[in-house]
Specification:
Order of helices and strands: EEEEEEEEEEHHEEHHEEHEEEHHHEH
Helix content: 10-25%
Distance between the termini: 37 Å
Length: 480
């Protein structure tokens, strides 16, 4: 994947006009302002006046014309020596108020009780370019989490079931990098279209065969990727952690990024936040990989005639422009620490997208119960295998796997260790200037595989371990 051509990025100052200190109500001048989740507007808690949020100006909106590299000022590199502690002088009473930006971006004056806010960006990663306000209330989130856990209580660990409560869920703004990409994709390979499917042999010697037309396939197109979203917390980027179920937070994406607004500290009132601790260069390899996956899946809409798949032998994504914005996105989070032994524990999360209500989580499993019932299912499977084998059922051996499959399915349902954001299909894209090349090479007969050898048009670089395992099993068994 080639880089953008411009050496120096264009920086858009997204905190233009922002002032630290008091944010006052336009009607009465009070500083006690917070988000009204029902309307999405900021509301004065004194006179109840509501006012619309500001939109960020200066960023590119037509991604298909994006050239070079553009970044919001909140996405610039973090300066490690930046002091997190800032001191303001209250404009009402003159008292000095200290705010630790690693913990909060607001504080009350201890004399006059006015609220002071940090709105200008400081280079420590605590102030983003944009924020996406909470839309789902705490009560709605509690109901979502209760429903999710309620469907998983049978194999849940008894200690977890006893201690579970949604009263301690937290509203958290997590840091993300939102990336727009203007690129040109070029792909060349081979694809197969099935002509005929038939059976040869008899009894246990029956085999399924295929006839197919083999084509040389080429696709060239421009691609605008709008709002590719990547975690910008090093901790949350570790989706395969053995001590935290971070992947479930990733799985509740996508967010409606297009509704993000200009940063304002008042959106954080009543919620907590986690500041960004990674820079663009650390995230660029992830964005490059995911952009290539998105391009590959975008091409699939033009390959419907190749029902046996396509094997791309060369794939190239040439980037003409990229745009980076630092963002705070809202999540309702329930957490539970399961102690395994004196040295090991697992922090389980149940997360709710505070815009869409998309919910994903991990529930501690009581293994003795799951293993016992899986063993019973396996015993039943062995009995069915013997019966079907006596009836000369060709695939009777499948019943030998029932216990293992049951254990696997229940484990996945409760732990969701395979859950992830399907960015390759869920990210907004626009394809243009498509050029197709399809040339018949030959007709193949007597093929034993149901798919073209090496098919990779549905391959995902960020595929989970479970997804890879399932694909391997399917390809190995090659069920007809």
């Amino acid at each position: 994947m080639s880089e953008v051509t411009n050496d120096e990025p264009r920086i858009v100052k997204t905190d233009e006009g922002a002032k630290d200190g008091q944010n006052k109500c336009p009607r009465c001048g009070a500083t006690d302002i917070s988000l009204n989740v029902k309307t999405g507007l900021l509301r004065c808690n004194y006179c109840r006046f509501e006012f619309a949020p500001e939109k960020v100006e200066g960023m590119e909106t037509d991604i298909s014309n994006l050239q070079g590299e553009v970044m919001g000022s909140g996405a610039q590199d973090i300066q490690q020596d930046t002091n997190d502690v800032v001191t303001f002088k209250c404009s009402s009473c003159g008292a000095e108020v200290v705010i630790d930006t690693s913990e909060s971006t607001q504080a009350r004056c201890h004399w006059c009780r006015n609220t002071l806010s940090v709105n200008q960006q400081i280079p420590n990663g605590s102030i983003p370019d944009v924020v996406l306000p909470f839309k789902v209330s705490k009560e709605e989130a509690k109901q979502q989490i209760n429903n999710f856990v309620g469907k998983r209580k049978f194999f849940a660990h008894p200690k977890f079931t006893q201690e579970f409560t949604t009263e301690n869920i937290m509203g958290v703004y997590f840091p993300y990098m939102v990336v727009d990409v203007n690129a040109h994709a070029s792909m060349h390979g081979q694809g197969e279209h099935q002509i005929r499917k038939y059976v040869r042999g008899s009894g246990n010697n029956q085999r399924v065969y295929y006839d197919a037309d083999l084509y040389e396939v080429g696709r060239d197109f421009d691609l605008a990727i709008n709002g590719l979203t990547v975690e910008s917390s090093a901790d949350k980027l570790d989706k395969h952690s053995s001590s935290k179920t971070n992947n479930v937070i990733n799985a509740i994406m996508p967010f409606d990024i297009e509704n993000s607004v200009k940063w304002n500290s008042n959106y954080l009132k009543g919620y907590t936040s986690e500041k960004r601790d990674t820079n663009i260069e650390q995230l660029r390899p992830i964005v490059d990989t995911q952009s290539k996956d998105i391009a590959r899946f975008s091409a699939n809409d033009t390959l419907k005639e190749y029902d046996r798949g396509v094997r791309w032998d060369s794939e190239n994504l040439s980037v003409k422009g990229q745009q980076w914005k630092a963002a705070y996105l809202p999540v309702w989070l329930y957490s539970y620490r399961q102690v395994i032994d004196e040295k090991n524990s697992v922090l389980h999360y149940v997360a709710v997208n505070a815009r869409t209500k998309e919910t994903m989580g991990s529930v501690p499993i009581y293994m003795p119960k799951l293993l016992g019932i899986s063993a019973a299912v396996e015993a039943l499977g062995i009995i069915l295998m013997i019966i079907t084998a006596m009836m000369e059922f060709r695939l009777s051996f499948i019943f030998l796997l029932t216990g293992f499959i049951y254990f696997f399915l229940m484990y996945v349902k409760y732990r969701n260790s395979d859950a992830r954001h399907h960015y390759e299909t869920e990210t907004r894209t626009k394809m243009s200037n498509l050029q197709k090349s399809d040339r018949l090479i030959k007709r193949e007969t007597g093929l034993s595989n149901s798919k073209i050898s090496g098919a990779n048009n549905k391959r995902v670089s960020g595929q989970s371990i479970t997804e890879k395992a399932m694909n391997t099993i399917t390809e190995t068994l090659d069920f007809k």
